[in-house]
Design goal:
α2 packs parallel to α9, α4 packs across α10 and α10 runs parallel beside α18. The chain has a single domain, classed as Proton glutamate symport protein (Orthogonal Bundle), CATH 1.10.3860. The chain has about 425 residues and is an all-alpha fold. The termini are far apart. It is about 70% helix and about 0% strand. The chain is built from 18 helices and no strands.
């Protein structure tokens, strides 16, 4: 029996659990809420348990690698690696900001989940939201241990960036500590994979509680919501990214023709890390990016660059959940959603299911109900295919842009209109 269950795809298990939760709730009605609630609440608590350490270890470990010059032997460790790393992370932030802006614009214009009127609004769980100035100053922690205890994600992100930068600057002097933090990030990835495997059980409890309490009508907003997520991702892939390529004097057709294999792999595997070997192959062999830089930037991007999962998805989903539960979003909410999406996307691990963690980060930061995760979990596989294709496209795009800005693109690349007129890498790879 266990072997048989192991052969069932994860997304199928989640859909089965979703259907089972709905069926059980419809059969037993409100009497089943007492059974469903503990199951769903335990799953939510397990997800929340991961957020703070996952954010800290992932960001600190990734930034610490920059100062050690890993994967950049040809250009030399230290200063050159750090400069390329700063360029890379800078473009991570810029493109993430664009992506979250696209997501917020779509959400604000279409207002997914608005006017559903299924769930009664209880104002008591809504947290008080601080003003914009307090939000901006509050991201710098006065007591980092308190920030960990209270789950202040944005403060943890800032602290992790500073720790990673200090470790990178100290180089060999803190090599052992950097290794320890990197090992901590690997431990958190493993724990995340374990917890994500419990998603079918969590979905059973969460969706069962929703349907038992409010009826099957709660599921109607999902179809237009899926369409909006795909719209946001397609705008990024076919409008935003081509524009950035053209601004840098690069051929859009050459880029997309070269990376199509990686996009396909990402769409069907739903994993940036799983797609990484293909991403590296198309970047080096097809786009003619230097192996040394691609071997550094793409693995970094697979852990820190998630336009689909960490920007577009949380932005639209936060608005959907707020509208679904009848919560009015203010400008301060939007600022918090944008900041947590941009900064939080740096901590997204490129494995299936972690977008749920990132949505948890955004909802927690904005004071929105985590129970909204229940009605999104069963369709996560459908969303994750498009989100991951967007993630991988953006990861290769940033590596391409940074290579262009630093004169690292080789002669003969399909990116170049006229190789003789464009800056190319000096020397052979």
């Amino acid at each position: 029996m266990l072997k048989l269950l192991g052969k069932i795809p994860f997304w199928v298990k989640t859909l089965i659990a979703f259907a089972a939760g709905v069926a059980a709730a419809l059969y037993w009605g409100k009497d089943a809420v007492a059974v469903f609630d503990p199951i769903g609440n335990t799953y939510i608590r397990a997800i929340k348990m991961l957020v703070a350490p996952l954010v800290f270890f992932t960001i600190a470990a990734s930034i610490a690698r920059l100062g050690h010059g890993e994967g950049d032997h040809e250009t030399g460790a230290g200063g050159r690696a750090l400069r390329l790393g700063i360029y890379t992370i800078g473009w991570f932030m810029i493109t993430s900001a664009i992506a979250v802006s696209v997501g917020l614009a779509i959400g604000i214009y279409f207002q997914p989940g608005h006017g559903v009127g299924v769930l009664p609004v209880d104002p008591s769980p809504i947290k008080a939201v601080p003003g914009p100035v307090e939000v901006l100053t509050g991201i710098v922690p006065s007591n980092i241990f308190q920030s960990f205890a209270e789950g202040k994600v944005l403060s943890i992100v800032v602290f992790a960036i500073l720790v990673g930068a200090a470790l990178g600057a100290l180089g060999q002097k803190t090599r052992e500590l950097s290794t320890l933090i990197d090992q901590g990030s690997q431990v958190m990835f493993k724990l995340t994979r374990w917890i994500i495997q419990l998603t079918p059980i969590g979905v059973f409890g969460l969706i069962g509680s929703v349907v038992a309490s409010y009826g099957l009508e709660a599921l109607k907003p999902l179809i237009p919501y899926i369409g909006l997520i795909y719209m946001g991702c397609l705008i990024e892939i076919f409008i935003v990214y081509p524009t950035l390529l053209k601004v840098h004097g690069l051929r859009v057709r050459g880029f997309y023709k070269s990376i199509f294999t990686a996009q396909q792999t990402a769409f069907f595997t739903c994993s940036s890390i799983g797609t990484l070997p293909v991403s590296l192959q198309v970047a080096v062999d097809n786009l003619k990016l230097p192996k040394s830089f691609a071997g550094f930037a793409l693995p970094l991007g697979a852990n820190m660059k998630m336009d689909g999962c960490g920007a577009i998805y949380p932005a639209i989903s936060s608005i959907f959940i707020a509208n679904y539960f009848g919560i009015h979003l203010t400008s301060t909410h939007y600022v918090i959603i944008a900041l947590s999406s941009i900064l939080g996307s740096l901590a997204t691990a490129g494995v299936p299911g972690v977008a749920t963690v990132m949505l948890t980060v955004t909802l927690s930061a904005a004071g929105l109900p985590l129970e909204g995760l229940a009605i999104l979990a069963a369709i996560d596989r459908i969303l994750d295919m498009m989100r991951t294709a967007t993630n991988v496209t953006s990861q290769i795009l940033v590596a391409t842009i940074v290579s262009r800005e630093n004169g690292l693109i080789e002669v003969g690349s399909p990116l170049l209109n006229s190789p003789k007129k464009l800056a190319v890498k000096v020397g052979a790879e």
